[in-house]
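Incident log, structure service

09:12 report received: a user says their structure output differs between two submissions of the same chain.
09:20 pulled the input from the user's history:
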Amino acid sequence: MEMLQYDFMQRAFCAGGLIAIIASVLGVYLMLRRQALMADMLSHVSLAGVAAGAYLNWNPTLSGFLTAVVGAVAVEYVRRSYKTYSEISVAIIMVGGLSTAVVLMSLNKSISKSFTSYLFGSVVAVDQTQLVLMAAVTVIGGLFFFLLRRPLYQMTFDEETARVSGLPVGLISMMFSVLTGMIVAAAMPVVGVLLVSSLIVLPASLAIRIASRFSAALLLAVGIGLTGVFAGLTASYQLSLPPGGTIALVLLALLLIGVGLKKAVRFVRSKSSHVAAADTEMHTYGPIPRLSGDSHNH
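09:34 re-ran on a clean worker, output below:
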């Protein structure tokens, strides 16, 4: 394809593919653990780190990455303090991260324009440092989800039982939160702070809705994520649209189409079952198919 002749598009597809794989897997776990808003919260914390890095003349990408990791650790500690109302931790850290970012941006107005790429994503402007960071996060995340797949599975569906069985739930949960922060920070150049949750939540939302098994949901989420990112990048190049927003819209369209098709299939099956039920008569011992040669003289 013509667009793949350009270096920036090659980097964009590599970056998008890497993040789509690991973010989609993370999304399934976050959805099942009822922590979908965690991605949004950590993206705002990461934005505060980017603002701090720009203000202090540090590398904004690295400062945002480290801040997201620190925010993930903070969330875990606050969550343990509010066990009954664990969602409060998300609100508290999000407010802190967003307000810090706004204040730091106001202190240096010259950096405000460069923040557009962080807010909405600029995957076609991904540099070599960001690409290496994404690759490292993908490898670390892949190893984490593979090596701890059984403990994570138990914790996802029944954390109390996992704790009673002797699993180090606190440590694994902390590691999971840190990895979430790393993935969110790495995904920011692809879709931006405002849309980062779309890349994590939307593929998982569709996969969970139509998959019958947990492993199938993971594979399906990865496939949906890759399809959305590659289709979004292609449409963005062909139509001169913002890549981050285009990717998010494609993923949303896939979700709506997938849910619509599932409902249509369910409707057709229900109609078929009604037709089958009309061709049977209820006997004392259950439904008996009515054959063409049956006589009703008993």
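09:41 both user submissions now match this output. Likely a transient worker issue. Closing.
09:42 reviewer note: Strands lie at 280-283, 286-289. DSSP finds twelve helices and two strands in the chain.
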